[in-house]
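Hi there, hope your week has been kind to you so far. Thanks so much in advance, here it is:
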Amino acid sequence: MYLFGASGHGKVVAEIIESLNLCIDGFIDTDLDKISLLGYRVFHEYPDGPLEVVIAIGNNEVRKRIANQYSCIFPKLISNSANLSHRSVLGKGTVVMAGATINVDVNIGQHCIINTNASVDHDCIIEDFVHLSPNVALAGNVFVGEGTHVGIGACVIQGVKIGRWCTIGAGAVIIRDIPDGCTVVGNPGKIIRKIEHKL
């Protein structure tokens, strides 16, 4: 198994892989100054052949671009210390970090990051390429659109819909629906910017 991205996020993903007793063949990174990470070789070009690859990059746009560029096997990874309902569904390439909780009838798309100690309650829908940062808390029946990044410690009350390619600031408290392409900060969350996203 290879990891795209030889940086901090890649280190965390690598330790999940090690804890699952899976083999790491190396990292892939375009930065020519990176030679090794955690004792594993860093490759600067995509190795030959059909490969099992985890995209270990926190940036949602970059993760989507890589996923669309390469024909790989993208396994999902779940930390041994995550709490995952057997009635939840995870898409390919999604990584669930240590201490995260995913409750009953949650549906999480492809290439998402459910980061350390994040909590996703019942019946939430998380679309592809979403990143829930550490200590994010989603109440029940929350919808998070494709490519949205929810910042560290943010909270979302039940039934709220967050649009595609939004940025929810650290510690924000979201109490009403958020349209596509918005940046939201504060308690209660306030839209400070809206952009058209073409991905």
